Amino acid sequence: MEDTIFSKIIRREIPADIVHEDDDVLGFRDINAQAPTHVLFIPKRPIATLNDLQESDAVLIGKLVLAATRYARAEGLADDGYRCVINCNGHGGQTVFHLHLHLLGGRQMHWPPG
Ligand code: AMP
Prior knowledge:
Elements: H1 5-10, E1 18-21, E2 25-29, E3 37-43, H2 58-74, E4 82-85, H3 89-92, E5 101-105
Antiparallel strand pairs: 1-2, 2-3, 3-5, 4-5
């Protein structure tokens, strides 16, 4: 997989506002926040898109989701609610090809998305 800006954030080659880190997952604030809370959770091991997930990634993806939901709870978002989004490829609106989960909260979300 080609290097992305997110790999550079993992290696601390470019700055980011990191809010979560464990052995497998990094969480940092989106540079172009779309909500009062907008954090990206990424696996440290680079996986380009949802299409590239293997059966053996099941635990890793579970850890990614749990990191986001635990953070949401710690930030007091759980009761009001929040949104988790993973964009895939062009129609999904993916622009950075290192799989990431957007956690958005702190305002009312709308459906359907644009
Ligand atoms: P996506 O469109 O789903 O691929 O989302 C990519 C997200 O990465 C966008 O919301 C960008 O604002 C965000 N982003 C791009 N570069 C950075 C960066 N250096 N630090 C934090 N977020 C970034």
